[in-house]
Queue: 2 jobs
Job 1
Amino acid sequence: MPIDRDKALTADPSVREIHWTTRDVLLYHLSLGAGAGAATDPELHLTFEDGLTVLPAFALVAGSGISSGEGAAPGLHLPGIDIDLRALLHAGQGLRVHRPLPASGTATLRTRVAEVWDKGGAALVVLESSATDPGGEPLWTTTTRIWARGEGGFSQDPGPQERWTAPDRPADTVLTSVTTPQQALWYRLNGDLNPLHADPAAARAAGFDRPILHGLASYGLVCKALVDGILGGDVTRLTGLTVRFAGPLVPGESLVTSVWRDEPADDGTGRLVLQSACPQRDGAPVLTHATATVIS
């Protein structure tokens, strides 16, 4: 079905109630490698229920765990948009947390189509979701960019041209995240059961030599690396993270993130510019157009 941009942009937001448990949070942290060095540092603030703190990136899987029955939908099915899963590529992700996330809770999640751009041979769909607690207070806001192959030709508007280059100076900090061969198998238990991340035959059908890691897993790895390597383990100091997914990461490979610091803003927040690459593939980019907002 061709995309109906006007219908998509004017539709009422979808609304659903979500819930998550301490167990969901613990599984999420473990799927990102928390506790891997348990003999010397079990990372109890991420791996043990007493005193558990929550990585901000958990917001992107909250309410989507397998036990909740809210696993990944097989495509994109919204008013004015009906696209098969095989045509979709997760192109980018943004997150802003309005306060620290509780280790268990419920929320109301409202999702709307914020924009649809015609890229000629594809469409770029931008979804915005906002979560509020039972009292109506905001918890987080996300922006998801979805590239839909073969879905262009519905308008004459390609959207703004967005150029990005890394700062022309050495990085202030370089962080390395090491993945394991079974990392994608762990991560899919957060709710995204796309066989691309587990079944070699499905990966080959999609054009990959073997299963790849979820884009949101790479995102979560960078989130954890920032908290561990720059913010002293304090999850509350990371309030925003926006990235573009530039290339795949295979489980077992490493993710090297270069970080440049900007001057702190008047409100006490700081901005970090990031770029992540895979050293096993000659520095091939994995995450670009990346920025983080931190409490200085």
Job 2
Amino acid sequence: MTKYEAAQVGEIENGTCKILNIEGRSIGVYYDGKEYFAIRNVCPHEQAELCKGTFSGTTLNSKPHEYIYGMDGEILICPWHGWEFDVKTGQSLVDPNRYRVKVYDVTVEDNRIFVQV
């Protein structure tokens, strides 16, 4: 794997994503206020630019008629059809065993953010 510099610390604001082209792949680097994550910018459903979607949360498993919101800022919602993906694992929330998006390791060194591809 090769490390590519994606940004400087402070360049990507909390809750936003910077889209890069690395080795012919469109990859979004997302900052949740604590950590950086890198995810492929292609939805497996219709190949939409996934990282142009919204970062949000979702309802968690709960009892009937009980709605618990969680994972705030950890869910990437596709802008075309609303498919939801966990930015940490790339797994789809609808069918995690069938659909996923590639995620990449991210490191921070000397105030620089690197993506390993």
